[in-house]
Amino acid sequence: MTHLSPAADGGRTSRRGAAARHGRIRSLTGVLFVSPYVLFVLAVFAVPLVYTVWISVHRFYFTAPGTHADSPWVGLSNYRDVFTDPVVGRAFVNIVVFLVINVPLTVILSLVLASALNAKIRFRSFFRAAYYLPYITASVALVAVWQFLFGTDGFVNHALGPLAPDPSWLVNAHLAMPMIAFFVTWKQLGFFVMLYLAALQNVGKELYEAAAVDGAGRIRQFFSVTVPGVRPATTLVVIYAIITGANLFSEPYLLTGGGGPDHASVSPVLLMYQKGIEQGHPDFAAALGVVLVCFVLLISLAARKLTERGT
Amino acid sequence: MSVSTPAAPNGTPGHTVDEPRSARRRTPWATAVTYLLLALGAVVFLFPFLYMVVGSLRKTTTGDLSSAVPRGITGSNYTAVNGAISLGRSLLNSGVVTIGVLLCTLVFGLLAGYALAQLHFRGRGTVFATLLLVQMVPFQLLTLPLYVLVVRDYGLGDSYLGMILPFAVNSTAVFLFRQFFLQMPRSLFEAARLDGASELRILVQVALPMARPAVLTAMLLTFIGPWNEFLWPFLVTKDTAMQPLAVSLASFLSNLQGTVSNPTGALLAGACVLAAPAVALFLLFQRHFTSTDIDSGVKG
C-alpha cells in the first residue's frame, strides 16, 4: 500500500468530512462492483422473462437479424393451442411419472449410501469418488453409454436373455419415460449422497445414544433419528427433482430419440424446442414456457407444504 | 444445514467425526452389509464408465457379454470419431467457451460478492434478494426468449460470445463469494482502507489471496456447467466448426454414425474424450470438492 489516502495530507480536511467522503466513495464503489452482475441479470433473466410473456400473447415469427415482421396481438389463442394439444398433456404427465420414480428412489438410495459412507469404513474416498463420477460427467457422454447398454442388442438384454423386454427399454412406450427417470437418478445420485452425508453430520450423537438407551435397535434408530434429522436435505431433493423434471431435454432428445416412441417420453422443454424452433412456432413455445413456469411454481409450493408438514 | 458442516475427512485415523458411530457398537454383520452396499453402489456407478473405456478401445464393439472385456485393443475408434467430427476443433470450442465462462464468473462474481459482503450501498438488500430469486429460476425456461434475443435479434449465432453470454454471470458463485468474504475479519479491510488502498486493490491484494478455497470451489463447480452443457450451444451453433464437443458428439450420436465402420466404438471414444477433462479435474481436486462446498453452493 504505497499510495497515500486523500486524507493523509496533514488534517486539512476535518476527520468527519473525510469519513463521509470515504463512505460515499465506498458506496459508489459498491454500486460499481455489482453493476455488471445486475446488468447481466437484467439481460439474461428479467428481459427474457418479460419477453416470453409478450411473445406468448402475440403471433410471432422468426426473422433474420436486422429485418422486421409484424407481430399482431392474438390474446390467449396461443394458450388455447397449448391446452388443447394432446402431446402437451403427455409432456406434463411425463414430469409426474419422472417425479414419482425419481424422488423416492433418490431419497432412499442416497440416504442408505450416505449412512453407509458415514460409518467407520476404509476406502471412503474411493467410494465417494465413484458415486460422484456420473454427476460431473456430461449427459451426452453418459447417454451414449446407456443407449448402448440398454439397446435392443445391448449388454443388458444379453445379460437378461429371455427376460429382456420386447420392444427394448428405450423404444418401449411403457419403459422409455421410466428409463429417463432411472438415468437421471443414477447420474445425480452422487450429488445427493454428498448432500445427505453433510446433513448426517448435523444429527446429534446424543440423539442416537438416547434412542439406544430407550432400547431402539439400529433400524429403529435409522427411522426415528436419522430420517427426521435430515429432513431439510430431503426437501432439497424434492425441489431439485421438480426443477430437473421440468427441464429435461438432452435425455429425451438423445436417449429416447426425440421423446419417442410416439411421444411416450416427450418433455415440455423438448416440445418447446420442437414446436418453437424446429417447426417455427415460437409463440406456441413461449405460451408453453409460461404454463411450465406456473406448473413448476404450483408443484413446488405443494411439495414444500407436504415435506415440511409436522416439522 | 449450516454452511460450516465439516466434511467427513478422507479416512483420517482417529478423527472425532467418526465418534458417534463408534459409540454404537458395530457387529461384524453390520460391517459386512455396509461394505456390500457400498461395493454394489460402486459397481453400478463405475460399470458404465468401464464399459465406455473398453468399448472405445475395441476393434469391433458389440453388445454381448464379452464386450466388457478388453480384447483386440485399438486406437482406431478415436481416429474414426476424429475424422467424423474433428475432435480437436470441438475440444478447442469447448475450451474457449468454458474458459470464457470461468473468467466472467470469477471477475464479475468476485466483484459482486465482495460488494455484497463488505461495502454499503443503496439497493444492496434488493440485489441480494434478486440473487436468491434468480437461483430459483431454471435456465431452460428462458431458453426460447434468449434464443430469439441472442440469435435472431443480436445476430450472435455461431459465435463464442453467444454461447458464453447466458452463463457469464453465475449467481451461485456470487453467493459463494459473498459468504466467504462475509466470514473474513472486518478489521483487516479497515486497516487496508486506513492505508488508503482502493476497494479494488483491497479485493485483489487482501481478500482474494484469502479466498483461494472459495475460488477453487467456484471454478470446479463452474467448469462442469459449460463443459457439459448441451441445449444452449446446440441451439446457438449451426456451423459445425463452432460446435463444442458435447454438441458435435450429440450430432454424431443422432445422425452421423453411418459414416464410420465401428459406429458404437467411435461414439464411445468420443464420449471418453468428452468425459476425460471433467473427470481428471475432479480426481485432481477431489479433496477440495467436499460435501461442504456443494452444500453451501447449493444452499442458494
From TrEMBL, chain A:
Gene3D superfamilies: MetI-like. The chain crosses the membrane at residues 31-54, 91-117, 129-149, 169-197, 230-249, 284-303. It comes from the Bacteria. Keywords: Cell membrane, Membrane, Transmembrane, Transmembrane helix, Transport. It is a multi-pass membrane protein. Residues 92-303 form the ABC transmembrane type-1 domain. Belongs to the binding-protein-dependent transport system permease family. This is Sugar ABC transporter permease. The lineage of its organism: Bacteria, Bacillati, Actinomycetota, Actinomycetes, Kitasatosporales.
